[in-house]
Amino acid sequence: MERLLLIANSALAFCLLAIGVCVLVAYPFADHISMVGQIAAHVSMLIFALGVKVSYIARLVALKELGRALN
Question: Which domain of life is it from (predicted)?
Answer without folding.
Answer: Bacteria
